[in-house]
Amino acid sequence: MTTPAIRTPDRKCEVAWFSALCSDDYEFLGVPDGKLRSSYEHCGDIVRRADANGFQNILLPSGWIAGQDALTFCAAMAPQVKQINQLVALRMGEVWPPMLARAIATVDHIAKGRFCINIISSDLPGMKEESNDRYERSSEIIQILKQMWQAEGPYEWKGKYYNFSLPHTEPAKPYQQNGGPLLYFGGISPAAQELCAEHCDVFLMWPETEEQIAATMAGMSEKAAKYGRKIDFGFRSHIIVRETEEEARAAADRLISKLDLTKGQSIKDRSQDSKCYGVQRQDELRAQAKDLYIEDHLWSGVGLARSGCGSAIVGNPEQVLAKLNRYMDMGIRAFVLSGYPHEDECDYFAKYVLPKLPTVRLNELQGRLVADPATPLTTAERK
């Protein structure tokens, strides 16, 4: 198996958990549970649990139904955690770019650099646009953010979607002054892949067969090389790990045992990304699966009531670890994991698998943190 050209050649991985800001926590999939409601209190408990369990990062998703703003939530959580990064999903176009740059810089200082961004380009709530427009706008915004994080003095941008001039960019200086926060991105359409290849640092993939994943990684490496860049690869998946394979499979069956498929479809349809190309590919794989298993230990049952990532790695600790090791051998360097209920599965994974993985924080590995943010870097140092 050929390893693609990646930013992090060392065989180490960043392991992230997931906090259910978008009404995505259940004991039984598709059956609402008041104690697992997507509240500040419950989602905060998930973050604190992942922090205590030693995860290096945690994804804070962006949605509309639950009504929690991921960046605001991150700012509130930052002083409460001890070591974990927060990966904040930000939908491009929601906020005027200079103000977004300032808001990101503010939260980056609150978090003391334990902060990174998941770039989202799905439709804004209540709007419907062509995908090319959404990705073109995202491209402009990413360029504006990167430039404002490092620019000195006056700044001007003239593009298709934004035109403005600023006398200075001081309010947008992040804690991670050597380049700003890492940018993670997920999207399988051609336009999405080009956006990531040109501008982002970590390309996140949803579960597919290993053959499909390897092909995607090879193609993305070639696209990034056209821009003189290398990117890292990440894998977004659910996890069900128990002491035995039989217990893990039983837990998977139990998770969907009370699911009404019509209700499950309605839950999927309300998501902002429910009609995207990546979700369609997940649905196609599930339709072809045997007993909902796409391949050994990769179970697609979650996608019966969830848009986006719709599969879980299912097995005993040795089987789950072996699956993750295969992905690492392929060149994957970031895992974004979750399970139901999120606090319980966080504990299972931290007990059985996490200590056996060679872990690292990607932003620290790339030198994105500075020891003394009060001392600005020179222009030469920023380059």
Question: What does the model show?
Answer:
Helix content is 38%, strand content 16%. It is of the alpha/beta class and 383 residues long. It has one domain (14-257, 315-382): TIM Barrel, CATH 3.20.20.30. A hairpin with a 4-residue loop joins strand 5 (155-158) and strand 6. The radius of gyration is 20 Å and the shape is globular.
The coarse silhouette is: globular
CATH topology: TIM Barrel
Overall helicity: 25-40%
CATH homologous superfamily (4th level) name: Luciferase-like domain
CATH architecture: Alpha-Beta Barrel
Distance between the termini: 35 Å
Kindly report the average pLDDT value.
Answer: 90
Strand order of the largest sheet: 1-2-3-4-7-8-9-13
What is the total domain count? 1
Strand segment count: 13
* CATH class descriptor name: Alpha Beta
Largest sheet: 8 strands, parallel, barrel
Given helix and strand content, the structural type is: alpha/beta
Total count of helical runs of at least 4 residues: 13
Note the beta-strand portion: 15-25%
Helix-strand topology string: EHEHEHEHEEEHEHEHHHEEEHEHHH
**What's the Cα radius of gyration?**
20 Å
Unreliable spans are 373-383
Task: State the main characteristics.
383 residues, alpha/beta, globular, disordered C terminus
Lay out the secondary structure:
Elements: E1 14-18, H1 40-52, E2 57-60, H2 70-77, E3 86-91, H3 97-110, E4 115-120, H4 131-150, E5 155-158, E6 163-166, E7 183-186, H5 190-199, E8 202-205, H6 210-226, E9 232-241, H7 245-255, H8 261-269, H9 277-288, E10 293-295, E11 298-299, E12 312-315, H10 317-330, E13 332-338, H11 342-352, H12 362-365, H13 379-382
Parallel strand pairs: 1-2, 1-13, 2-3, 3-4, 4-7, 7-8, 8-9, 9-12, 9-13
Antiparallel strand pairs: 5-6, 10-11, 11-12
Helix pairs in contact: 1-11, 2-3, 3-4, 4-5, 5-6
